[in-house]
Structures are given as C-alpha cells and as structure tokens.
Amino acid sequence: MEFFNFLADCLKKMKSDDTLPRVTSPRMYNDGNITFEGLMVVFASFSTYLQYLNIYRSVWWLPNSNYTLWKIHLIDYQVVIFILAMHCRRFIYCLITWVFHMLCPQNYWKFIRLFIR
Length: 117
What we know:
- This protein has helices at 2-15, 33-60, 77-103, 109-116.
- It starts with a helix and ends with a helix.
- It is 66% helix and 0% strand.
- The chain has four helices and no strands.
- With 117 residues, it is an all-alpha fold.
- One of its GO terms (cellular component) is membrane.
- It is found in: Membrane.
C-alpha cells in the first residue's frame, strides 16, 4: 500500500505547476534530395577509396617486400566502376527527376515520374 501512496504523491507532484519547462530541440535542417544524395556519393566514394588503400597497405606493403612501386594495375577497374555506378544511381535519379520537374508542366508530372521509374 505504501508503494501506491508513493506513486500517487509522485503523480500529484508531476501534475503541479512546479514542473520544469519544456526544452526546445534545436532546428533540424532539411536538405533537398540532390544535396543529400550528392553528399552520400562523396562519402561512399571516399570510403571506397579508403578501403582500397587499406587493402593495398595490408596486402602489398609487406615488411620483406622489395617493391617500391604501387601495383595499381592489379585493381580490377570493372569492380570499381560497378561500385561507383551503385553509389551514383540514386543521385542520377534525383538529378533527372529535378530536371524533368523544372522543364515539364505540372499536369504531366505524374506521368513523367512513372516514366522515369
């Protein structure tokens, strides 16, 4: 019974006017789709570059290696192009939709959006 009395007292204190004022949260910036996707392409490309650099350092910079040249020719460029294409596809889609949105009339916009997808 004491617990319920304690709980009732706590609820009364919470309902009183002596509660703390609300804390306002900072303003959240809402960037556009093109800005967000562009930043994601830059971030993903840079992280891919760092991963390739890590692989290069861990595999080819062996302690007893006598090679001083970078073996860039061993990197598969088709894989790099595929990775960049996967990173850029949403950014390109946002650019195309933005261009069509600016150029086409409003009443054709729904049809054009379906056509782009």
